[in-house]
Design a protein that fits this description.
InterPro entries: ANTAR, GAF, GAF-like_dom_sf, GAF_ANTAR, WH-like_DNA-bd_sf. The chain is of the alpha+beta class and 255 residues long. It contains eleven helices and five strands.
């Protein structure tokens, strides 16, 4: 399952790659962009730059209830959903306290702290958990989850990178809606959560049509959006509203 940056490769790779990848993501913020796609890129960047194998973002609505908004893998998404269903877990604790959680051993004290989450995560091949708060001024709006196969604490530099990525995720949520109209931050978050729901509906439609699992179906939608030059959210909305057929969403673009 190992796909993330490991310390065996040395810190140079992460420290060298971070400015370049961060610059590419921040460049998106001055253009028209899809916040869901950018948040997915943030989770992928976590796996690429940090010694973790999965990452996910939970975002709060106007009542403070968290929802899944981006995940680097289906395993991560399911673990995030389990936290929401049980109302218990490291990401929820990070969000509620506003304090980062450096990597804890899910087979050690963390197993007693979050027994249900720890058991499910260990069964999926993870032993370490870290979480970073997403903060907008004095308000907490969500949290970034990081799972690793080995329970090795993040270094000071890695913690700074992880928090910078959590901050970038926060900006991605707020800034996109501000470009369109100056809504309140809580309404901006709700709009992004609603976009995620639409994308999940469209993903389910493509999965059923093509016989894909959900990860494959999501990849089909993202690829189709890139091929046609459309935002992922716009493509998903058109599919859910019946303005395009599932067959149109599940086919290569003509050249």
């Amino acid at each position: 399952m190992t796909t993330g940056h490991t310390r065996g490769e040395g810190p140079t790779r992460g420290e060298g790659a971070f400015p370049v990848e961060f610059a590419e993501l921040t460049q998106s913020l001055v253009n028209d962009y899809d916040p869901i796609e950018l948040l997915d890129r943030v989770t992928a960047m976590c796996v690429d730059l940090l010694p973790v194998q999965a990452a996910g973002v939970l975002l709060a609505d106007q009542w403070g209830a968290l929802g899944t908004i981006a995940s680097s893998s289906e395993q991560m998404r399911l673990l995030e959903l389990m936290q929401l269903q049980t109302d218990h877990g490291p990401c929820l604790e990070c969000y509620r306290t506003g304090e980062p959680i450096n990597t804890l051993d899910l087979t050690g004290p963390a197993a007693r702290r979050w027994p249900d989450f720890a058991a499910r995560a260990v069964a999926a091949g993870f032993r370490g958990i870290a979480a970073m708060p997403m903060r907008l001024r004095d308000d907490l709006i969500g949290a970034l989850n990081l799972l690793s196969e080995q329970p090795v604490p993040l270094s000071h530099y890695e913690q700074r990178v992880a928090q910078a990525l959590a901050d970038l995720a926060t900006i991605a949520v707020v800034h996109e809606r501000t470009l369109r109209r100056p809504e309140l931050p809580v309404e901006q978050r709700l709009a992004v959560l609603n976009q995620r729901v639409i994308i999940e509906q469209a993903t389910g439609m493509v999965a059923q049509h093509g016989g894909y699992d959900l990860s494959e179906a999501y990849g089909v939608l993202r690829r189709r959006a890139r091929e046609t030059g459309r935002r992922l959210t716009d493509l998903a909305t058109a599919l859910v509203e019946g303005r395009i057929t599932v067959s149109e969403a599940d086919r290569p673009a003509t050249k």
